[in-house]
Specification:
The complex is a heterodimer of chains A (445) and B (255).
Chain A (H helix, E strand, L loop, with lengths): L2 H10 L2 H16 L4 H14 L1 H37 L5 E6 L19 H7 L8 E16 L2 E10 L3 H4 L4 E4 L4 H5 L4 E4 L1 H7 L9 E4 L2 E9 L13 E5 H8 L4 E2 L2 E2 L3 E6 L5 H15 L11 E5 H44 L1 H9 L4 H37 L8 H27 L3 H6 L2
Parallel strand pairs in A: 3-8, 5-7
Antiparallel strand pairs in A: 1-11, 1-12, 2-3, 2-6, 2-11, 4-7, 5-8, 6-7, 9-10
Helix pairs in contact in A: 3-13, 4-11, 4-13, 4-14, 11-13, 11-14, 13-14
Chain B lengths: L2 E14 L2 E14 L3 E5 L6 H8 L7 E6 L2 E2 L5 H11 E4 L11 H12 L4 H14 L15 H13 L5 E5 L7 H16 L4 E5 L2 H4 L4 E6 L2 E7 L9 H12 L7
Parallel strand pairs in B: 3-8, 3-9, 6-7, 7-8
Antiparallel strand pairs in B: 1-2, 1-4, 4-5, 9-10
Helix pairs in contact in B: 3-4, 3-5, 4-5, 5-6
Classes of the chains: A alpha+beta (445), B alpha/beta (255).
Chain lengths: 445, 255
């Protein structure tokens, strides 16, 4: 029946009859069950079939738990990697001699001597490089250390007093280098934690003498263990005054009247100004070394801590995404489980659906009831999965193998995704229920 | 007297593949407020089709049907659901109670679909309806704790709870023994005496005898419309029914 037919028929009715009819139809349209009531029916069904409810929710539960746990582990790893990088300072730029550009003619690659103490001083000029906070020129080498019957091979870093601040190094015993020791190139040494333990197993290193490349050095301090391993760890190195390293230990060349250095570490004023500082540093070096301003002939390379961080972050984020995707697939499988059970449930309750329709349920009422059911299933599964996933993540944390990071956004994302899965996979069964012909449904055996 | 049901040339044709099945070929009658009517006829006669149309579960292919002043044949499915909810109380052969719910919850169900009634009032009205069918002491029983007759009483209470214009019962005693059948038919009579319009659809003459007017459907047409008291003086209906059953069985199948 179309509205036009209806209007035509009604036109034949007498006016007051039509008015009464309009009122009656308005009255019919006014009623209807509230969505709360429909939701109540849905929950009632789930409550009276606890085993089926639990088994159906299990798929989503496992999916959400997997998402939460895997993302927590992924994020935890990411954070621990990031923090180990930023432990050295996130706002550092490391300058080394040697071209950083690829292609073109590169002269004096890796030739030490292209960076000098003069360069370090120029970089420290606040007028030319306002975003640079500290400049630490360094000279690196390695040497044999002997103390009594103990000996160790160590990375030797020639440093200025500013080194401690730039690298966040803390002295456990004794003190750090002083300006006086640096200026007069004294034979003093600060030992990394591991070197100190190797040379002086009983402790008490400060004040003792060690032989370093055949020369006598006095131990003036022991660094606090950073706990880290790998490159850049100060635990396996020793620190001597820069001047001592250049002149007495490694015979650095003088270039243009200034001593060469192997590294200049520049600290930007903050993590945000690192890029600006890097720009300033590059400009100064190009000007002072008469290099092309476009960077095509650079004889130095600048490694930005921030750049390393970004690369690592990208990698770990990809890993986290990968873990999340695998978990999401299991969540999807859980959703298919819901659809399966709901389809069976519609079949099973055909007569109930027929009855509800006979008693006045509209198609939309039935649709909503079954949608609520699948939503509740995924919601219950999601909530339980949230708890289980967090428990797994926390227990992984307790083993100490990996640090985990639980976060609200991941939890909300997983729960929201679970609900979306429930809704999506609930639509087909709910529609098939809503479309049932009440006459057929009531006779269904 | 006002017509509760006004049926004019009502027809229903089903399409089964290429075959058209004329389940109802044009039926006209009026049922007034307060009548007690039996629609009888053998299986495949079209009486189930007629019942589905009267019950607003189906829409006619042709003709008109007015229920309590509403032109039902012109209404869409959403309005038909509301009409079923407000105007018709269904009683089925298989009771169709929700196994999980108590008697009270089952009876309150139509009120929930009506909407706009507080849950407290719904339960109160459901309890009153159960009281009316003599089950005031079984409110919290579940269907499996009740006998067949009691279950059918619950179903009747459910049909009454929305204060319908029409009580429409489809073989209401088909699943009950003789004594219980008599009780249930007695209940229908009582309800009719208190003013309820009751339509029973049945193929059993014993059930039809409880009513006061008989509409006999055959081959999709209204064959007889007589007071029940005059119905069985000459023509025995059941014998014929048995002979015809196999041929017409296809008509029992709804599309």
């Amino acid at each position: 029946m179309t509205a036009q037919d209806s209007a035509g028929e009604l036109g034949t009715l007498r006016a007051h009859e039509a008015a009464t009819l309009d009122a009656a139809i308005d009255d019919l349209l006014a009623g209807g069950i509230s969505w709360r009531e429909t939701a109540h029916f849905a929950f009632e069904t789930l409550r009276t079939n606890p085993v089926r409810t639990l088994l159906t929710a299990l798929g989503v539960l496992i999916g959400v738990a997997a998402v939460i746990a895997l993302l927590a582990i992924g994020r935890g790893s990411q954070e621990s990697i990031t923090s180990s990088i930023t432990a050295n300072g996130a706002n550092l730029i490391t300058l080394r001699p040697g071209a950083s550009t690829s292609g073109g003619v590169r002269s004096a690659v890796g030739e030490s001597g292209s960076l000098t103490l003069d360069d370090a001083e120029a970089l420290a000029d606040p007028m030319r490089a306002p975003n640079v906070a500290l400049v630490s020129p360094e000279y690196n080498g390695s040497a044999q250390l002997v103390a009594g019957s103990n000996n160790a091979n160590a990375r030797v870093t020639g440093a200025t007093p500013v080194y401690a601040e730039v690298h966040n190094t803390t002295v456990e015993e004794g003190g750090f280098l002083t300006e006086a020791q640096h200026r007069s190139a004294e034979n003093v040494v600060i030992l990394g934690a591991n070197i100190a333990t190797t040379l002086f197993p009983d402790g008490g290193a400060v004040g003792e003498q060690v032989r370093l490349s055949g020369q006598n050095f006095t131990v003036i301090g022991v660094l606090k263990s950073s706990g880290g391993t790998g490159f850049g760890s100060v635990d396996d190195g020793v620190i001597v005054p820069l001047t001592t390293a250049q002149r007495k230990l490694f015979g650095a060349r003088a270039v243009g009247g200034s001593w060469s250095v192997s590294t200049i570490v520049v600290q930007a004023t903050s993590a945000e100004t690192v890029d600006a500082a890097a720009e300033e540093v590059a400009t100064i070096l190009r000007e002072d070394h008469d290099l092309p301003a476009d960077g095509s002939g650079d004889t130095f390379s600048a490694i930005n801590q921030q750049t390393i961080l970004e690369t690592v972050t990208q990698t770990t984020q990809l890993l986290t995404l990968f873990l999340g995707a695998i978990a999401a697939i299991s969540l999807l499988v859980g959703g298919i489980g819901i659809m399966n059970i709901m389809l069976v449930s519609v079949r099973e309750r055909t007569r109930e659906i027929g009855l509800r329709k006979a008693l006045g349920a509209k198609e939309s009422d039935i649709l909503l009831q079954f949608l609520f059911e699948s939503l509740a299933l995924s919601g219950v599964g999601g909530l339980a999965g949230l708890i289980l996933g967090s428990a797994i993540a926390l227990s992984v944390n307790l083993t100490g193998l990996v640090t985990v990071s639980l976060s609200w956004d991941v939890a909300l994302l997983a729960f929201g995704f679970a609900l979306a899965v429930g809704l999506f996979f609930g639509i087909a069964p709910a529609r098939s229920a809503a479309k049932l012909d009440p006459i057929v449904a009531l006779r269904y055996e | 007297m006002q017509s509760m049901i006004k049926v004019r040339d009502l027809a229903r044709t089903y399409q089964m593949g290429d075959i058209e099945i004329h389940a109802l070929r044009g039926v006209s009658f009026d049922i007034h407020r307060g009548e007690f009517v039996a629609i009888i006829g053998p299986s495949g006669s079209g009486k189930s089709t007629l019942m589905n149309l009267i019950g607003c579960l189906d829409t006619p292919s042709a003709g008109s049907y007015e229920l309590d002043g509403l032109p039902v044949d012109l209404l869409d499915t959403e309005l038909l659901a509301a009409v079923r909810n407000r105007k018709i109380g269904f009683v089925f052969q298989q009771f169709h109670l929700l196994a999980r719910g108590t008697a009270l919850a089952n009876v309150a169900l139509p009120l929930a679909y009506r909407g706009g009634i507080s849950s407290h009032e719904r339960l109160e009205r459901a309890a009153a309806a159960l009281e009316r069918v003599g089950l005031g002491n079984r409110l919290d029983h579940r269907p499996h704790q009740l006998s067949g007759g009691q279950q059918q009483r619950v179903a009747i209470a459910r049909a009454l709870v929305n204060d319908p214009a029409l009580l429409l019962a489809d073989e209401p005693t088909g699943a009950l023994d003789t004594a219980t059948s008599a009780e249930i038919l007695g209940l229908f009579s009582d309800l009719n005496r208190s003013g309820m319009t009751v339509v029973l659809v049945t193929h059993e003459p014993d059930v039809a005898r409880a009513t006061r007017r008989l509409l006999e459907i055959r081959d999709g047409r209204l064959m007889r419309d007589v007071p029940t008291s005059e119905a069985w003086t000459s023509q025995p209906v059941p014998a014929q029914r048995r002979r015809r059953l196999p041929v017409r069985q296809q008509w029992r199948i709804a599309p």
